[in-house]
Amino acid sequence: MILDHRNLSDDVAAIIRKMILNGELKAGARINQAQLAEKFKISRGPVREALRSLQNEGLIKHETNKGTFVTTLSKQDAFEIYTLRALLEAEAAQLAVFNLTEKDFRKLEELLDQFYQMMVEQNLESQAQCDILFHRTIVEASKHSRLINMHRQLDTQVGAMYLTVSNKVPVRVHQVVENHQILLDVLRTKDKEKIKEIFSEHYTQTLKDLSNMTPIKG
Amino acid sequence: MILDHRNLSDDVAAIIRKMILNGELKAGARINQAQLAEKFKISRGPVREALRSLQNEGLIKHETNKGTFVTTLSKQDAFEIYTLRALLEAEAAQLAVFNLTEKDFRKLEELLDQFYQMMVEQNLESQAQCDILFHRTIVEASKHSRLINMHRQLDTQVGAMYLTVSNKVPVRVHQVVENHQILLDVLRTKDKEKIKEIFSEHYTQTLKDLSNMTPIKG
DNA sequence: TATCATATATACTTAGAAAAAATAAAGCAA
DNA sequence: TTGCTTTATTTTTTCTAAGTATATATGATA
Predict the structure, then answer these.
(1) pLDDT 10s digit of each residue in chain B, 218 long?
(2) Which candidate from B53, B81, B87 shows the least CB-CB separation from A91?
(3) This prediction's pTM
């Protein structure tokens, strides 16, 4: 039970988060405090604290005196997550204009290359990783800590959603790479109006794809 | 220690939140777990859990093995809070167009009247309450739960900020009432483009006032 | 089907030990 | 004396262990 070890609760939260994100804990599954504590050979206190954090992240849902369950996402949730992400990211991209260095741009290019590579190798996990890192790099360049936080929170929720959704969906990866190239290009122009437009658009497309392609219950 | 009582931790969180928001716990002050537990005559577990929630809300800052402290807000924080709130609210207002009923509009009118009344009576606290409720009513009409949540979180942070800022600031209340009337009017038009414009503008003004009028350190 | 007993899980308490950090005290060098 | 480092001492957080109380779910009985 030693990871980065600053405190147990956060380590436990990280572990459970991973368990949810890689499907070890499935959507809707019950989470038993006592069992987890026993499994990790720790007491229940830190487990309870970890669960509280994860609840605030939106990965689990806790009902008093009933139990905690891995969040299940409905169509409405997917809508919410993507629209909010779009909104935040469009704003972040505009703010990022002031801060993006040539080094940042090179990093974004690199991530795009990597993304393409992972697409060729059909490595879905690394693909998703590149995707997230690409967007995160842009958002972090906004230097708007609250915006960054909220965006990251939505990212993990997207991650949880991919499990219930994306596996069954043949994502058109080529188009994704193209779209990202467009985002990168418009960032280079530093034209804030255009940036806002393109970034907002980017997500309406994603959202449309999602609602067409997947039979999410809800 | 009986309030609505679903669970102790949430009650404790509510109490501490109030203590911060009404200045009983000042910005930067240390929060001692054991002392709080003793004060409320409960054990430390629930207190720790409450603090975890409040940290996620941004009202306190916890440093591992060091302690928890009431958040102090810098100029950058004020900027972040207001810009994000503006962004979220402009979006919410557009979504609300589909859902706002005549009853909602009457409620908003009422709140404006009340606001004016409280202004005349120079009741600052009720004024702030009306202000928050006015905006919250609009945001809630968006039916976008994540957006609503984030907005509420920013609201409490605004509340915390008022303590360090607003007392020293002669708010131009007349203008505030006028501005709110404008918001209400534009909502009635149901013109989404215009709504976005006016709502965004509303906050750039607030932000400008704030940065001119207050010497927030940061 | 409704009711009561039983079992399970959560919520909280109590008491205290381990570990980290802050504080105070002592020692030493300039 | 002053400034700095090292070494206790104390405080606070972190976590443990075991157990009680309470709410919910399960399941048997009528």
Answers:
(1) 333 458 999 999 999 999 999 999 999 999 999 999 999 999 999 999 999 999 999 999 999 999 999 999 988 898 999 999 999 999 999 999 999 999 999 999 999 999 989 888 888 788 888 989 999 999 999 999 999 999 999 999 988 887 766 555 556 677 888 889 999 999 999 999 999 999 988 877 777 766 665 544 44
(2) B87
(3) 0.89
Q: Report if residue A199 sits inside a domain.
A: yes
Question: How many domains is chain B partitioned into structurally?
Answer: 2
Cα–Cα distance measured from residue B138 to residue B108, given in angstroms and rounded to the nearest whole number: 8
End-to-end C-alpha distance for chain A, whole angstroms: 38
- On chain C, which bases lie within 7 A of the protein's CB atoms? 9-16, 20-22
Q: Which residues of chain A fall below pLDDT 70? A: 1-5, 164-172, 209-218
Would B2 be classed as within a structural domain?
Answer: no
The answer to whether residue A218 is domain-embedded is no
Same domain, A59 and A133: no
| Torsion of Cα atoms, B182 then B184 then B185 then B191, to 10° | 110
Structural domain boundaries, residue B161: 75-213
What's the CATH code of the domain at A47? 1.10.10.10
How far is B19 from A171, CA to CA, in rounded Å? 50
From the list A56, A80, A84, the residue facing B56 with the nearest CB is A56
B chain contacts of residue A88, beta-carbon cutoff 8 Å: 87
**Calpha distance B15→B9 (Å, rounded):** 10
